[in-house]
Amino acid sequence: MVNWGVIGCGGIADRRTIPGLMEAKNARLVAVMDQVPEATQRVKAKHACPKAYDTVEALLADQEIQAVYIATPVFAHKDQVIAAAQAGKHVLVEKPLALNSAQGREMLAVVKAAGVYATEGYMMKFHSLHQRAKEIIASGALGKIVLMRAQLSCWYPEIPGAWRQDPALGGGGALMDMATHLYDLMRWFVGEVREVTALVDTLVFNYKSEDASTMLLRFEGGTHGFVDAFFCVPDASVLSRLEVYGSRGSILAEGTIGQGSGGTMVAYLEEGDKGYDADQTREAADVKPQPITAEPVNPYTAEIEYLSRCIEEKRAPEINTLEEGLRTLVIAEAAYRSARTGQRERV
């Protein structure tokens, strides 16, 4: 059993990750801390947490704590991850890793020198249907993957003091906060991004960060990728689609992209070699949708259990590593450059 402390216990920590931690079989919540004392005490009482601290330093000095979950605004990640590593604590840090890749490299160097394990909160790889999609892609059943599409959007109006609406505090807006989730998932499916072309705009709201982002990606091996992430589309209007197309079939999903464990997924798979069909109809090909099913898994519980298992087994994490998070930051920076220059950017 791994003892956890939480730094930044409001927001996503309170709504999703702490409840996920409470369900974990190999993790125990020991302490919480937030810069807002009222939030610290509220979350402590809500989750029956034994301890509450007023400062990061006090929490990190607690010898009972083995791992920390850091869910503070992005501008605080670098200093807090470094402090946690130097205190000998293993780390799960929320995404994105840092404001920029330079900060990410500094964090990674300190974590390695400290000899602790660290992962990043791109939890969608733990969704059970995404795990099944990964298995199907790896099996070769879809043939050569030629195109992937993914969308993640929401309604995020002006909120005074909201750090995601100021790139100096969050590193960016819809692209940095949400599109990077999709970069991460697609890379897990097919490999690294090599080129990116992006459109980044503020179309509806008046904050400093972008509320609209659309990206065209080219992956190693040539696969094309299309990503859209917007802060200015009503939540109920977005189906959070994921699509993977190969030379022998496709995987189509709705509702799997996001914070939940639900959604639906089907596969269209060709059997044998197919000749040219002049009518180009699905009926003529006699291809029927095959439902893809999997036992639902809370992705927040799964990410906590994964790092806890690595700690217990003294085995370095292989997914959601800080190296992967750094690579995602590099891709995001290339996308922002592309949006500024109007040119395709190598990654």
Helix content: 25-40%
CATH top level of the largest domain is Alpha Beta
The largest pleated sheet is described as: 9 strands, mixed
- For the terminal residues, how far apart are their CA atoms? 40 Å
Shape: globular
SSE string: EHEHEHEHEHEHEHHEEEEEEHEHHE
What is the count of helical runs? Answer: 11
Write down the Rg: 21 Å
Question: Which structural class should the secondary elements be placed in?
Answer: alpha/beta
**Strand portion:** 15-25%
Taken together, the total number of domains comes to: 2
List unreliable stretches of 5+ residues: none
Do you know the CATH architecture of the largest domain?
A: 2-Layer Sandwich
Oligomer: single chain
Number of DSSP strand runs: 15
Biggest sheet, strands in spatial order? 14-13-12-11-7-10-9-8-15
Mean pLDDT: 95
CATH homologous superfamily assignment of the largest domain: Dihydrodipicolinate Reductase, domain 2
